[in-house]
Fold Choline/carnitine acyltransferase domain-containing protein.
Amino acid sequence: KYRRCCATYESASLRMFRLGRTDTIRSASNASASFVKSFDDPSKQNLEKLDLMEKAVKAHRSYTNMAISGQAIDRHLLGLKLQAAEEKLSVPAIFRDPAYAKALHYHLSTSQVPSKTDCVMCFGPVVPDGYGFCYNPMEDHINFAVSSFNSCKETDAGDLASAVEEALLDLRRLLEQTPRSKL
């Protein structure tokens, strides 16, 4: 429906730090955008799509590792903003920049809620024109819960759920049709 990348929040646990809560895994990256665009490009061969998928997974894993080790940007920036407010300083220019506001307008808020129990958990979107997307990977399937506000004409949780199902089926076909050597 949207056919574009958006600011995406994926929760990263900071439990390894005393009083640590969460930070943001910014899932959208140049690597993930290149991979997704390759599906609509008839000139891309399956092996090239797999290579792009591998790069996207590595980029995501790298940023996830940065986030859980306290090296993401969101909580650091929030800390600077709160410190400026606490010390009654003027808010630094970065926090007034429209790009900063756009980067924090999470059209997609996601989180894995792993459980050994076959259950579905859900949470709402964090912005009025966004989606909440909760997932629970099980051994032989994944439970998904997608939500959006009915008051927003631009979002439809059912449409997003259908698009995700279609994308997962596309990925399965790609992986089944493109065996890679194990060397």
User: Anything to note?
Assistant: The beta strands are 8-13, 22-25, 108-112, 131-137, 142-148. The two ends are 39 Å apart (CA to CA). The longest strand covers residues 131-137.
